[in-house]
Amino acid sequence: MPTFSNLPIAVPDPIFAVAAKARAAGPEAIDGTVGVYLSEEGKPALFPSVQRALQDVGATLAVRSYSYPPLTGLPAYRAAVTRLLFGEDAPLVAGIASTGGTGAVALNLRLALLFDSAITLILPTPAWANYPRLIGGAQMRRVDVPYLDGGRPTIEGITQALRQAKGSCVVLLQAGCHNPVGLDFDQGQWEELTQAMKERQAITLLDLAYQGFAGTPEEDAKPVRLFARQGVTTLVAWSASKNHALYGERTGFACAVVPDEAFRKQVEGHYALLTRSIHSAAATFGQTVVTRVQEAYSDAWRQDLAAVRSMLHRKRQALSAALPERMRGAVSGQGMFALLPLSPAEIDRLQTEQKVFLTDDGRINVAGIPLARMEELGEKIRKVAG
Known about the structure:
It is a single chain. The chain is an alpha/beta fold. It is about 45% helix and about 15% strand. It has 14 helices and 13 strands. Strand 5 and strand 6 form a beta hairpin. Helix 2 crosses helix 11, helix 12 runs parallel beside helix 14 and helix 13 packs across helix 14. The chain starts with 13 loop residues before the first helix and ends with a helix. The mean pLDDT is about 95.
């Protein structure tokens, strides 16, 4: 007879588990765990452009509709994000508002299974720690390939897996500001990979969670536009968490580039059924805020992102100067994260002796540590790994 005693032990999420230890360690701790862009005061940074949009939206709260939204999301929101991803000359896109970027990845994994229930997913690793759960939840076969070779991104593992895979396959790629390593493919690698996937007739699932954190929104969307332009079957997962600082509103977008209007309707019909089977429609408050930002404060928003990029660059420079020389290449990338070459024993000593908290694989959220503490962080790392 099933009882609660039959339940397996729930293993805590490794990132949130370490973050809980950091909070318990008090204000002296340096917390490099959960991926939030924080101010120098250690608070989630809300962009001025988003603050203005929130004030506008706030004035409408008493009169806005609180009925159920469309399953695919607010049309104006979907149009705004499609423009961010593909520009004014966008291809035909089927899209749906999602519960954060996580929900967008989950929806696109399930859509890929509708192409072929026996499809194989190729995952370059190291990768975001939550991908295996999402892939497992979709009950999809997974093949891991190396993302790094000699500390630099490589496409060789992906192209080899494409040649060896039998049947249909989908490749899950981060389009920029790689989590956890912060190191991205260069333009030549993207172009070569696009051709290999086109020849193999593979699907690409591009996860763009940090648009605007490496370069301008247009620069960061180049991989998305490249795949779409070359005729590769392209799925995209997008998040407003970082680039609109709306973490708690869980605002995302999933889409597929489609060949014609009939397929657009068909794919959006499948998106609607998929989201209905999980949690029905995504919440609309964040969608409304993003739409207002893009329609009324786009220029100011781009200035806010430029300030973010500048601060991230300064933090990486400061941390690099303070680290042992052998670790400096690990923080030479872009975006919020870096993967420090630390052993499990060194990571444990950082926690217990220095009150520095990283995830168990050495991932650090550079964006979550004040610039003023980077030298201190480097010194503490040197004490255990210098």
